[in-house]
Amino acid sequence: MKAAVLYGQSDIRYEEIEMPKINDDEILVNVKATGVCGSDIPRVLGDVAHYYPIVLGHEFSGEVVEVGKRVRGISMGDRVTGAPLIPCHRCVDCVQGNYAQCKNYTFIGSRVFGSWAEYVKLPGINGVKLPEGVSYEQGAFFEPATVAFHGLFCMDFRGGSDVAIIGMGTIGLLVLQCARILGAKRIFAFDIDNDKLEVAREYGADICLNTRDEGFQEIIRQETNGRGFELVVEAAGVESTEKLSLEIASNKGKIMFIGTPSRDVSLTRREFENINRKELTIRGSWMSYSAPFPGKEWELTSYYFQKGRLDCDRLVDRVIPLGQISKAFEDLMSGKVKGKILLKP
Fold first, then answer.
1. What residue ranges of the chain have pLDDT lower than 70?
2. What's the rounded Cα separation, in Å, for the pair 129 and 344?
């Protein structure tokens, strides 16, 4: 089969490799659409891949073409997406339903070969059927959408309150849609890119603020009567936005850090004191799983894509053949990519 194989930093080759061979508890999926995640970028352009050569890719959907004899609930020809985390299902964390905290896990597309290929194998329990009317392209967005739902659940999100979402990349725009589904009163979108803020407005953000514009903090004071935000979601993963989260949160506010920093973050004494003085509740979120595996995040994502209340059309920068992946990463390096890259093997 054809696959995009990473051999080293910025060394990705489209070539022929062996087909995966499934075990009795696994399924084989003919990949129809697969995405480039933000976490894939440092693996390709940097040096953080776990090993070489490796086939990356963990956001995908496709058609089941082989089923292990111990698999139940999945059949040949089913249209599925895949939950990429493979936990041990035996440790204390797994037994408690905290699969993302499993210390014995593996992961499709980072620790084992992933979906930047014509075929990918996965445990049958990780296969999630696509409902009628949901496209393969939408199926490739299930994993990031579940990340958005999971972050909101982790912060004990409740409808009826204003929420500030910082960072209008793929995850931030999906958090925006999920917050709207869960009943946010008003949604405030923050970014430094007016084009992204326009997409946020189209997805239902009530107020969009460019943090490079002078006076945006005064707008926050006016709109919140000087209190700040009870709920803040940080989805950019950079130092400036993480500090901004502490600044704009209200007294007794809740902050959810979904964004993963790629560099060290340091706080001044005064910045850290926001946590103490405001008595903030700060939570982190990691991946997208709950019991029973893979969790309600995946059920809700499936439901709301089918109902049309989750949308990914405006999140896509381009849909290209897998064989053009090297050019896509050249464009990423030069800043020409403004959204999700979807690959078609």
1. none
2. 19
